[in-house]
Amino acid sequence: MDTISLDVNRLPRHVGIIMDGNGRWAQRHKLKIAMGHRAGTEALREIIRNSSDIGIEALSLYAF
């Protein structure tokens, strides 16, 4: 991952994420839908780690 300079005073304290499209992503890549959900889960894990590292205090997640 590239190093990015962030102004922590300009970051939101709360971020909302609507998860949708992992199944369609898998179909486009000729994978089973479950593999799309797995890829979405891995992406979410990275988002959670990075959000915590940069000081985001709260995440709201909505998954279809």
Question: What labels would you give this structure?
Answer:
single chain; 64 residues; alpha+beta; two-stranded parallel ribbon; 2 helices; 2 strands; 19% strand
Layout of strands and helices, then pairs:
Blueprint: E1 14-19, H1 22-28, H2 33-54, E2 58-63
Helix pairs in contact: 1-2
Can you summarize the main beta sheet? 2 strands, parallel
Instruction: Based on Cα principal axes, name the global outline.
Output: elongated
Calculate Rg over CA atoms: 14 Å
Q: Are there runs of 5+ residues with pLDDT below 50, and where?
A: none
Number of DSSP helices?
A: 2
One letter per element, helices H and strands E, the order comes to: EHHE
Strand adjacency order, main sheet? 1-2
Counting helices, strands and paired strands, the structural category is alpha+beta
Helix content: 40-55%
Q: On the 0-100 scale, what is the average pLDDT? A: 90
**Percent of residues in beta strands?**
15-25%
Termini Cα gap? 28 Å
Say how many strands there are: 2
